[in-house]
Amino acid sequence: MFLKSKVAQATKEFLMTYGWAVGVVLIAICVLAIFGLSNPEFQRNNCKLSAPLRCVDSKVTESGVELAIVNMAGIDLKNVSVSISGCTGKSNLANGTQTWIDGIQTSLAGADKITGCGSLKINDKFKQTIRVDYITNDISHSNSGQISAIVE
Fold first, then answer.
1. pTM over 0.90
2. How far lies 137's CA from each of 42, 103, 126, 131, 141, in Å?
3. Residue segments in the chain with a per-residue pLDDT below the cut of 70
4. Are 23 and 16 in contact (CB under 8 A)?
């Protein structure tokens, strides 16, 4: 009876020790997967701009780049121009003459998308810098960010 108790105790200690270790490893893997840290070089359809602009959606197709950007500056932005490195085209809604109203989303999509981005093919990776130039209170500003996507 005393021998069975020692074996049971040793088995319980073994399972508890290694059980905790396995649990910690599983939690770490889940956290990495959830936050996308497993592949920091490239994330699917990711668009980021610094304040006061917010990129809420993006799509890259064979014919160009579509963006949805919200002005969160608290005031209207004048003479807005959006460019993407590696793309030669400009959007009609962001060619340096438009005003973006505060709190309103501007969609550079369809006929207003940014074109001239080279020979994009479906499933290619696209990663470039976005630059937004604008004027507030007669002062010129420049905002930059990043877009990474898989060509659709």
1. no
2. 37, 17, 35, 20, 10
3. 1-4, 36-44
4. no
